[in-house]
Design goal:
Belongs to the N(4)/N(6)-methyltransferase family. This protein has about 850 residues and is an alpha/beta fold. The protein has 34 helices and 18 strands.
């Protein structure tokens, strides 16, 4: 039983182990291609089982072979009528596995199988979705990059085939686990492919922004991506639609690079998209308009949603000597000008806008240059504003793509905007987390952007609703800093405060939360020293203690604690009822929305920080745990244990071995902490005693190394020595015992040696006891997993998922007031020393120096 996270890790680890030095952008074609062929084989066998009315899955391959020998083409037609394709018994992925296990594997059989599938599909013109997926130009198994000779290539392909052997692709597709794993691999290959990643992948967090905006504001039945890449944008929009909308959705996309075009088709099919619902084309989007409506050639096919991440500043977008595009092209005619030949950004935007339905939404990722560059691009921008097409401009951080470090923006366009509606500018360029060399938007950053867009909120330093008049005043320049002014949080220095002392009253007035919550305490803590300036009449630590212990602050913290307990109780009850019908994405969204709503009632609290706390719970454990619960039930899963598989050895001897058991959803450590606390404490006490003994022995060793000391005279000979007879850092037990035998029992020397001997004996005894007790405790935990009571499972899972959430939310409520207290402390320190006090210190220092000089006597 695998969770989606386990599958992702297993496949990616396998990919890293197997690809060697092959370029990631190329290796992905082999790995993902064979993964998809396993899916086709599994679907063929599952469909045969159903059409043949076979209930038992055992020996399904042999039954398929026998039925094919008996019914031949009739059987194949039945399968093809259901799937639109079939895989012959001799070409099944499972047949390759049988050959590997029997030692009869030949690389040519794999090549023949892939070629046969291509030939099979070629005779059915209606199944274009499968054609060319395994063409030799894409998956060339004779490529020397796979190995310098036939034996090496054969071994590498065999290892790759075995990577997918244990996965039933049909079962995994049901919960969209297979599609998610495929998407994950595409993303991982992108992060390892450098500049080539831009050919096929849009970072997940950017896809999420675009998809959520489109899905939450538009009725989507048709969606189009003119530069479709791997299809991730289409599928991300789909994820945020209702189940019925997902079933009704029609997908359109075009991709110029053939290998990437194949990725799109496989990606959609693995996500369960029916072939009749997808229309993906291999071609150059700008060279020839597609899709076209023959009856309305000048209008273009219209879509509810258009999403795209086109090549940035494409220098060859119109580099066609025979038939370069002209301004008369229906896609550009409405603008009266072509984009510059060296920058194709607006060409892609105009193409997408041409295909956008009147009530649709378009989201496109572009470099910031489109917002302010002049000449033809300035004219296009002016026309977009005049026609009221731009709905929002969202600025994102740089370093978000693996293939470019430039910052990008997302433009949201609509054709049905009311005249006079402002354009929303969002500056999210400083809202990110750095992971390695990449800047990453967290869940809270995405949620803040989407909420700000949907609610059309103006937030100082973050968003602004710009009128047409503002944009005209800026000469149609849409550069975000012209509309969203960044906030300078630095408190200006006050010259009078530095000269004469005192905190400026204006700075105190700016402490909004302190003034509104505990204004009386703040006022009582300050004394005026002259007009406009005050000073603390008690230590800052006293002020902080009074504020944090004040009932008004405590009550607020306790209230959020109570709110979060209600939240925990509610969702623990829901989690206990999770089954295969539960939509986990919707459950996650409900929790995120509710925690944000709870925190929105607390002044000065950033509810998106709380949103991130819950998002991390889902990311770190709850999503994978919920997948298991959906399969087996809550309490049943709580009592499940899995083999703890560890990797041992390296190179050719690398292998997986079992090392005990682990709870499927309840960590062993949590069971120990809660149910075996006394046993664990006893072990920790023994370990602490061993540590104390080590310290005592180390001190004795160091003392024994000091010549002429008592310890040296008695213990030096008992210290371990290296080959050069240099003393080491431990005693030799045998030498200690030998010295004891030769030393008088009633002497100091004997007592010293005996102490060392007793300490070493005690350490040995304790270490043995620790080992025995740990083994006994480990075995007890292994047994206890399967015997946990319902009440214990309730308690342990709540601790795992929500153990710190109350504390985390209380910290969020207290954080704003603590921040202002820190500001007050800083202001107090800043203006504590005046010019006069500094002058007095200098004067005193000079006086002391003169007195010291006068006492000096020259001899």
């Amino acid at each position: 039983m695998y969770t989606s996270d386990e599958i992702k890790r297993k496949l990616w680890d396998g990919a890293n182990d197997l690809r060697g030095s092959m370029d990631a952008s190329k290796y992905k074609d082999y790995m993902l291609g064979l993964m998809f062929y396993k899916f086709l084989s599994d679907k063929t066998l599952e469909t045969f089982r159903k059409v043949a009315g076979i209930s038992d899955k055992e020996d399904l391959i042999n039954q398929f072979k026998q039925s094919y020998e008996e019914y031949g083409e009739e059987l194949l037609k039945m399968i093809q009528d259901v799937l639109g394709y079939y895989v012959l018994p001799e070409h099944l992925y499972q047949t390759w596995l049988d050959d590997i296990r029997s030692g009869d594997f030949e690389l040519q059989k794999v090549i023949d199988s892939l070629n046969n599938f291509e030939r099979t599909i070629a005779v059915t013109d209606e199944m274009d979705d499968f054609k060319g997926l395994f063409s030799s130009s894409i998956i060339d198994l004779n490529n020397s990059a796979l190995g310098s000779d036939l034996n090496k290539r054969s071994k590498n392909v065999k290892d790759l085939i075995l990577l997918f052997a244990d996965f039933n692709m049909v079962d995994l597709q049901e919960g969209d686990i297979l599609g998610d794993a495929y998407e994950y691999l595409i993303g991982q290959f992108a992060s390892n492919a450098g500049k080539k990643a831009g050919e096929f992948y849009t970072p997940r967090q950017i896809s999420e922004i675009m998809a959520q905006i489109v899905a939450k504001t538009t009725d989507v039945t048709t969606i189009y991506d003119p530069t479709v890449g791997s299809g991730s944008l289409l599928l991300t929009v789909r994820k945020h639609l209702s189940e019925q909308a997902q079933k009704d959705l029609h997908y359109y996309g075009q991709e110029y690079i053939t290998e990437t075009y194949n990725l799109t088709r496989m990606n959609l099919l693995l996500h369960g998209v029916r072939p009749e619902k997808m229309n993906i084309k291999n071609g150059n989007t700008l060279a020839q308009d597609w899709p076209e409506d023959p009856e309305r050639p000048s209008e273009g096919v219209q879509f509810d949603a258009v999403v795209m991440n086109p090549p940035y500043s494409d220098k060859r977008w119109n580099d066609r000597e025979e038939m370069p595009l002209k301004v008369s092209d229906p896609r550009f005619a409405d603008f009266g000008v072509l984009p510059p030949s060296t920058k194709g950004d607006f060409a892609y935007l105009m193409h997408g806008l041409f295909h956008l339905g009147q009530n649709g939404t378009m989201a496109i990722v572009l470099p910031h240059g489109v917002l302010f560059r002049g000449a033809a691009e300035g004219e296009i921008r002016k026309r977009l504003i005049e026609k009221n097409y731009i709905d929002a401009i969202i600025g994102l951080p740089g370093q978000m793509f693996t293939n470019t470090g430039i910052p990008v923006c997302v433009l949201i366009l609509k054709k049905n905007r009311k005249l006079g509606n402002p354009v929303l500018f969002i500056d999210s360029s400083n809202h990110f987390t750095k992971i390695g060399k990449q800047n990453v938007l967290q869940e809270k950053d995405i949620a803040r952007i989407v909420d700000t867009y949907i609610e059309k909120t103006e937030l100082e330093g973050y968003s602004h609703l710009a009128t047409r008049e503002e944009m005209i005043e800026n000469d149609y320049n849409l550069n975000i800093p012209r509309y969203v002014e960044s906030i300078d949080n630095e408190i200006p220095q006050d010259v009078d405060g530095h000269l004469y002392g005192g905190i400026p009253q204006s700075n105190i007035n700016d402490l909004d939360m302190l003034n509104s919550t505990v204004g009386d305490i703040l006022k009582q803590s300050l004394d005026p020293i002259r007009l406009g300036y005050v000073q603390l009449n008690q230590s800052i630590s006293e002020v902080i203690e009074k504020v944090m212990k004040d009932e008004r602050v405590v009550v607020k913290s306790e209230q959020v604690k109570s709110d979060m307990q209600t939240f925990i109780d509610k969702y623990m009850a829901i989690i206990r009822t999770i089954d295969k019908e539960t939509n986990l994405v919707e459950l996650k969204e409900a929790m995120l929305t509710e925690v944000k709503e709870i925190l929105s009632h607390y002044d000065y609290v950033d509810e998106y920080l709380g949103y991130q706390v819950v998002a991390e719970i889902w990311k770190n454990s709850l999503m994978s745990d919920a997948e298991l619960i959906a399969i087996s039930g809550f309490y049943e899963t709580g009592r499940l244990r899995d083999k703890n598989m560890v990797t041992k050895g390296t190179g050719d001897k690398k292998r997986q071995e079992q090392d005990g058991w682990i709870g499927a959803i309840i960590p062993n450590e949590l069971i120990v902490k809660n149910l075996y606390a006394e046993e664990q404490t006893a072990i920790e006490d023994l370990k602490m005693r061993v540590s104390e003994i080590d310290s005592e022995l180390s001190e004795l060793v160091e003392s024994a190394k000091v010549e002429d000391s008592d310890e040296y005279n008695v213990l030096y000979e008992s210290i371990k020595k290296n080959d050069e007879d240099e003393p080491q850092d431990a005693f030799d037990a045998k030498k200690v015992k030998a010295e004891l035998k030769e030393t008088a029992k009633d002497s100091k020397e004997y007592d010293m040696l005996k102490k060392v001997d007793q300490l070493m004996n005690e350490k040995t005894k304790n270490n043995k006891k620790i080992k025995e007790d740990e083994k006994e405790l480990t075995e007890a935990v292994y047994e206890r997993i399967e015997q946990l009571t319902d009440e214990e499972i309730d308690d342990l899972t709540q601790q795992k998922w929500f153990g710190t959430i109350q504390h985390d939310m209380m910290k969020l409520v207290e954080a704003p007031i603590q921040k202002e207290l820190a500001t007050l402390e800083m202001l107090n320190t800043r203006y504590k020393d005046t010019l006069e006090s500094i002058d007095k210190e200098i004067e005193a220092a000079e006086k002391s120096l003169k007195e010291l000089m006068s006492q000096l006597v020259v001899k």
